[in-house]
Design a protein that fits this description.
Length: 300
């Protein structure tokens, strides 16, 4: 068999594997052609890693194979150069920017709303220039008052505002990522599917949503929540499920497999980002959490 015939036979074998099992006996050497399972892309918020400086933290992350850094949006414009320099030449990207704007989008006080608009625009520009997937936003925390009433008109207003904000975000190749919380912190937006419906109704590609395994105690099913979010899902937060510590610190409760299975089925290409504390030594609890998540991802 010459090289050309060999290649043709091999290619046929691969095609047979795609066609179906009846003719797939030819194809055992083609298993490498199967689409690879989506990889687990882990990200840390800045306070998760060991290290005094940002550089030390990034070194720690690289050793663990963590490929995303989620930065706090507060003072982002003044820290912009430091952050950009710190990831230069590393296998770490800025995954997302966590809040950091002033005011809130559902503020009833026009001054607070204006402060939100101005600061959110600045933040979106900086996030986009850092290559972040988006800026994480909660429409209104329970503690934020005076707030627009929870009515149909307010939802329509929110969708119009989100549309404009989403279009602005797109100019900087980034997005606004809506984060549902639990009812103790934000009754306005509590479920991933509700956030996804807002994305749909905002009618802008620049509006996306996320799920946070900690807040997802509001959900009846992690799997269903992520599947419902589908194409709108742009980010995920993770913590232990009892006390919001490192995944694994709450033992058996820290099972993320059904949610991870949904992410795999969605071919979710974005990050799962740590947002949590720890009761132990970070040098021990953080690598253990990374290992636990890798094992569960494999099982999912
Ligand atoms: Mg969160």
């Amino acid at each position: 068999m010459d090289r050309r015939t060999f290649l043709q036979t091999s290619l046929f074998g691969c095609a047979a594997a795609v066609v179906g099992p009846a003719v797939s006996g030819l194809s055992s050497s083609c298993t490498a052609q199967k689409p690879a399972a989506p990889e687990l892309k882990l990200s840390f918020q800045e306070r998760i890693a060991c290290g005094d400086s940002l550089g030390e933290k990034l070194d720690f992350m690289e050793k663990l194979g963590v490929v995303g850094l989620e930065v706090n949006g507060r003072n982002l414009t003044t820290r912009f150069e430091e952050i950009r320099q710190s990831i230069h030449g590393r296998n770490i990207k800025i995954s997302a920017v966590c809040a950091g704007f002033e005011g809130f989008i559902l503020a009833a006080d026009p001054k607070v709303k204006t402060a939100f608009d101005t600061s959110m625009h600045e933040l979106l520009a900086a996030a986009g220039e850092l290559g972040a997937l988006g800026v994480i936003m909660v429409p209104a925390f329970n503690r934020q008052t005076p707030v627009l009433p929870h009515t149909r008109e307010t939802r329509e207003f929110l969708c119009e505002e989100l549309h404009a904000l989403g279009e602005y975000a797109l100019k900087y190749q980034t997005s606004v990522i809506l984060e549902p919380l639990n009812r103790r912190e934000a009754h306005y937006l509590r479920q991933v599917s509700d956030a996804a419906a807002l994305c749909r109704d905002a009618k802008s590609e620049g509006i996306k949503c996320m799920g946070d395994f900690w807040h997802m105690s509001e959900e009846t099913s992690d799997y269903a929540a992520f599947i419902a979010a589908g194409e709108y899902l742009r980010h995920v937060h993770i913590a232990s499920r009892g006390r919001r510590k490192m995944p694994g610190e709450d033992g058996e409760q820290d099972n993320y497999i059904s949610g991870m299975r949904a992410l795999k089925e969605l071919d979710y290409p974005y990050y799962i980002s740590f947002e949590c504390g720890t009761l132990g030594e970070r040098a021990v609890t953080v690598p253990a959490a990374v290992e636990l998540l890798r094992k569960q991802w494999q099982k999912a």
